[in-house]
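User: I'm curious whether this sequence folds into something compact or stays loose and floppy. Could you predict its structure so I can see for myself?
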Amino acid sequence: MGKELEVKVLGLDLDTIEEKIVNLKGELIADELQVNTLIDSDLNPIKDSIDAYLRIRETEDLLNDKVNVVLTLKKNIKNESLRENLELNSKIEDKDTVLSIFKNLGFDKIEVGHKKRRSYKLRGARIDLDTWDKSTYPYPYIEIEVEGPKHLNEITSLLEIPQENISNKSIVELKEELKLL
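Assistant: Here's the prediction. I'll summarize afterward.
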């Protein structure tokens, strides 16, 4: 079980931010291709009952030539300035069998998205540069995981990120906003 404090940075050029991170001696810690499968129920949506989402993430680690598959329940904890999540994770060996189990339990809503992610460590923060396939989410964004609000201010100041570009919304919420446009 892990806890994370994070924000998304929307509307900025990833190459420009990555150049700043590299110039500040940020350490490349991951270069990944991900298949993210969201699992839910039309009849009893997970978000309605516990403000969470269920995901299977298959990660191809391009730096180490490995594949990892993890089931995650990501539960939102109310926090004003940062998105705070409680993550329950478990490695799985057979993604198709796990999906079949969920389908048999009534989880009839399956959404698959593909993401390219490059991640850096910079002054104790994790910075992910994310690009989804266009049908999942058409805009690249940055995810910054920090220790708290003061740490976030330090990192965003270093990278010259305007406050108006910072969001504490989840990818699920951002996708829902697009449907309303």
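Summary: The first helix runs from residue 14 to 23. The chain is about 25% helix and 45% strand.
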